Here is the input.
Amino acid sequence: MTALHPLFALFIFPAGLFLILISFFFEWLDRKLIARFQNRQGPRFLQPFADIFKLLAKEEIVPIGVHRTLFMALPIFAFACVMTASLYVPFFGFKAAWHIRGDLIIAMYLLSAMTVCLGMAGTNSINRFAVVGATRTLTQLFAYEGPFMLALLMPALVAQSWTISSIADYASNHTWMIVTQPIGFIVAIIGLIGKLELPPFDAPEAEQEIVSGALSEYSGRGFGLFKIAKNVELVIGLALITVFYLGGIVNPLLFSIKMVVLLCVIALMQSTLTRLRIDQTVGLWWQAGAILSLAQLLIIILVRVR
Amino acid sequence: MKLIGMIQDVLSSMFKKTATISYPLKPSPPPERYHGRLDYNAAKCTGCMMCTRDCPAETIQIKVIDRKTKQFVMTYNIGECVYCKQCVFNCKFDALHMTNLMWESASDSKEGFQLYFGKKEHIDSLLKQKNEEPTA
Amino acid sequence: MTDNLIDSNKSQKYIVPIGPQHPALKEPGHFEFTVEGEIVVDASIRLGYVHRGVEKAAESRTWTQVLYLVERVCGICSHAHGTAFIQNAEALAGIEIPPRAKVIRAIAGEIERLHSHLLWLGVAAHEGGFDAMFMYSWRDREIVMDILENFFGNRVNYSVNIPGGVKEDITPEFAEQLRIKLDFLEKRLKHYLDVVNDDVTFRARTVNIGTLGKEEMTRLGATGPTARSAGITRDIRVDRPYSGFDIYPINMILDDHGDLNARFVVRLKECFESIRYIRDVLEKIPEGELSVKFPRKIPAGESMSSVEAPRGELFYFVRSNGTENPDRVKVRTASLCNWGTIVSAVAKGHKLADMPMILAGIDPCFSCNDRMVNIVGKEKNAQLWTWEQLRKYGINYHAMQEGFNVSDCGIEQLREEK
Here is the structure.
């Protein structure tokens, strides 16, 4: 491969521009599905693109009382985190752009770093809503992170590798892991909802209480970048779960269908469940989520030892 | 299924038409009894001014040109009207009616909301008078 | 920034302000919740952002014009406001409206209750982040709005009342339409009641949240569904039946839990009762005139009337001085009575996340309750009375007026026990 290849992978495909565009599509699909579930019409196809385009064109207001550099840098950092993470994830049936040993841990770490960025963005400002939102974001991070991590590590344990690509290879050549590890799959998909702060785990940005949570003070470019980062995180999360649990790398069409089906499940949960309070969220994760994933882990270890 | 109460609605609405009406493309006609624009019949009016006295928005004005030959000009602002139908009840001579017209009232100027009922020459002269008045 | 508001040493209090502009509140009101972490330790409220001077404006309008003015005090319970005011005017003028008009007023009131409770159901669910319920209940509310539009001509301020009667007649064809729509609505409401009672996540947010016992509710003077959810038998339609409800009585819906879930249940069951009532009354609606003549001038005098608005007791005091205009109109809306149950009792100890739902739980209406009280000062003719004095005076006044013995009804004892 020529020197062009890494740059092409970074900026155009599979990461970069292509990923951002596809994330618009997934955001639109998510909103449209929820609207249809609620008997509404929902947004037009180009709505997410128009939203982001408008946000990026707008003035960014830096409020009083924030650390200016941090305020400006956090959105970029969060955006960079998810874009870097996307390099290690195989999208739409293509091999991952890059792989090194243990890149699963790197991807997970980068995705968490994005959430930490959100938390820092909240605590950076003196807005009370933002501070409460940031506290909730970070509390929720500690709640779902353990079980979600375990749920994604279990395929790694089975495949005996910490590299996403080799886990994907393993998944393509064996039975779908949703069959062999159903509990892990459930924990993973609920963990993804928690990670993306979607209902019912949207206490960190519950608009009825704390307006827009940690991002209350963000406007214009910063807000737009955070929004893109979250959309991309949705795509990465869906792709990871699809690769691990739904039969690895297959042809692009089938892969997209699987991702859309997963999105349907997420949208269904978003529209049928009431928002949980933050204490209920934490309780649920540590009481049910952690124990379930530990049980799954135990089963895997027992099966493997035998 | 009972534990997740709304799941039935949510799933079945995927196969249903949306409750939203795509309004400008699909006009929705007002019902028969809808309180729309006021209609005035100068031939029946006696100029008793009962409609103006109880109008909550104080928007009806009747200019008497000649009471004998029933020459009246009724002015009325559809932007100020609260569509309560009180004037219709106050009118003992059946000169006022609520129609279900003009419920999509919109105009690019305030004058667009002002409606005049009566003979054309009277309205013209009235408008001319109004224009000539110095705006204090 | 050195003067960081969060960890300033001056005050250790961390206050989360809600309002006057806030996504949770569609009307302006200002709340300050002092929180420790997520737990609210203190709450205060400031109202008065939508004071419009309605009471003063009423004094310069004719009786008929005031009817339409007070209908606009509240957009959702406009019929209740109109009825409460016009009952006073009719009482002062010495007019008895025809029974058909009375029943049509009652039916309009119950249709209004349906639309108000469905609206509330959506809003309260939305405050808890349950948007599916919000969208569906508002979709079904549109049926009630269509009934109002088809029948009374307007969607919101439908002005059914006219001094001395009602405007529109209920024709048999309309009654048939109404029955069909009510059947559908009843089916939907049954479904919502099931959701409220069974849904796991929804119950997690409502059961044992915002609980207030019967004694505490009585002490704070709650009215309407809020009071009835704690088992207080307080419903003007039953206690002091007014137009229509004296001819055909309605049942009171009670629940004894006093928490948020009970408020959902009480309001939904009230919807069923309203549907039952409308159905029954449509069968046997009395024949007769729709309105009687109403004089332009009303003899001097004072009158009070209460109406059970969807939110609770709505009270109107009217004084006439024998002219075309009322001399004084005093409005006391239900939301004002219910604020106390949130701010002084329920809020403390709850999570911040529960506050929007608890606030929505009393079905607050901000623009309803903004009145102005001008205390002139001690040196002038004004008197400052304590609650006890005022209560004693009220009991004695009514005992004198109505001629009953105070010791019989046990009001005094109730007070002393407390």
